[in-house]
Design brief:
The chain is an alpha+beta fold. 23% of the residues lie in helices and 30% in strands. The strands form 5 sheets. A 7-stranded mixed sheet has the order 5-8-9-10-15-12-11. Strands 3-4-2-1-19-16 form a 6-stranded mixed sheet, covered by helices on one side. It has a two-stranded antiparallel sheet with strand order 6-7. The chain starts with a helix and ends in a 7-residue tail after the last strand.
């Protein structure tokens, strides 16, 4: 088995280094819903009481640091089978604050990767945020902004949710934008909550359109837990995503997760049904790229064996931290997702 895996790795690398006689640089872009990474302190401004030592979850320092170890381990291994290192860009969601993100990137599993952090506090009622991690050796952030999603319930009361984070910068000196999302949940039912995700999709589209108005050649990757599948209206009708490269037109968004979803692949499971809520969307110029710039190679869901529940009622599901209100000490209720970007190496200039 070890020989087969080793052979597969070299075959994969050969495939991307031998195309047209060229060698390629590979960068991994990943997203992970880390499932309620809270510290143990009670924040009087948010509903985080369950995640305290005295709360319902009995969230102790021991459990917290085990969670940090688990999540940092996962982040260190996404895409490693090809690049032999951790992702260059990582979007994360369900983190409580900057402090827990700093604990993640400073853990021994990630410390030597030298990740920078872009984070804003969102107005979410539970206090959970999104953030972008980037390797300083690969990416130089130039601009960043947090865009507020304004949604209201049936009584016209504000529903406080996560912002959409936009970070622009240089990936190996090539201009690119990353948007990190965590769209409103399906709490209360899929149909009843659908307008909230439609609103989130419209905000995402406005952000993308505004970036392209400033520069039509802008390369953009929008990633996140969208709480919708690739075939739902928020993706197909609002963002007008396309899952087939051959049918992709200029200015459209390519959704590589759609093809995975049609094959029955998911990033989370609920009532014995798989969903692929975690997605990465790319502007067409990252898919139809000509020349020496970055372009899309392939996408996948990271399902290392240790991330999968081995037995019981939830066998095959993501191995999460709590199940049915009971602490089981897993990782997250979501699998991470990722894409590889490649570009031709310029001889004697890039390593």
């Amino acid at each position: 088995m070890k020989f087969i895996l080793t052979f597969f790795f070299f075959l994969t690398v050969y495939h991307i280094t031998a195309q047209e006689g060229n060698q390629y640089k590979v960068r991994t872009i990943a997203f992970y819903n880390v499932e309620n990474l809270f510290d143990t302190e009670n924040d009087s401004l948010t509903f985080d009481d369950d995640r305290t030592p005295e709360g319902k979850d009995r969230w102790t320092d021991e459990r917290y640091w085990k969670k940090v170890f688990h999540i940092s381990k996962v982040l260190s291994e996404i895409g490693k089978e090809v690049t032999q290192t951790s992702p260059d860009i990582i979007g994360i969601c369900e983190v409580e604050n900057l402090g827990v993100i700093e604990d993640l990137v400073n853990h021994r599993n990630l410390r030597d990767k030298d990740y920078g952090i872009v984070h804003f506090d969102s107005p979410d009622e539970r206090g959970i945020d999104v953030a972008l991690l980037y390797k300083r050796a690969a990416f130089l952030p130039v601009s960043f902004a947090s865009h507020r999603l304004l949604i209201f319930d049936e009584e016209e009361e504000r529903n406080y949710t996560r912002d959409q984070l936009v970070v622009g910068g240089l990936l190996d000196n090539e201009k690119i934008y990353f948007i990190v999302n965590h769209w409103p949940s399906r709490s209360g039912g899929e149909l009843r909550s659908k307008p909230n995700r439609i609103a989130a999709a419209k905000l995402n589209k406005r952000i993308i359109d505004s970036l392209r108005r400033l520069d039509l050649s802008s390369k953009i990757i929008s990633m996140g837990d969208l709480n919708d599948d690739p075939i739902d209206d928020s993706l197909k009708k609002v963002l007008k995503t396309e899952g087939k490269k051959k049918r992709l037109e200029e200015g459209e968004l390519f959704n590589p997760m759609e093809n995975l979803f049609t094959k029955g692949i998911g990033s989370l499971a609920y009532r014995d049904r798989w969903n692929l809520f975690d997605q990465l969307l790319l502007t067409s110029n990252l898919v139809r790229q000509e020349g020496e710039g970055f372009r899309y190679w392939k996408a996948d869901v990271f399902t290392a064996p240790y991330l999968v529940t081995k037995k019981g009622r939830y066998k095959g599901y993501p191995f999460r931290t709590y199940a049915g209100g009971t602490y089981i000490g897993g990782y997250s209720d979501h699998f991470p997702v990722y894409v590889y970007l490649i570009k031709k190496k310029i001889p004697n200039k890039e390593k």
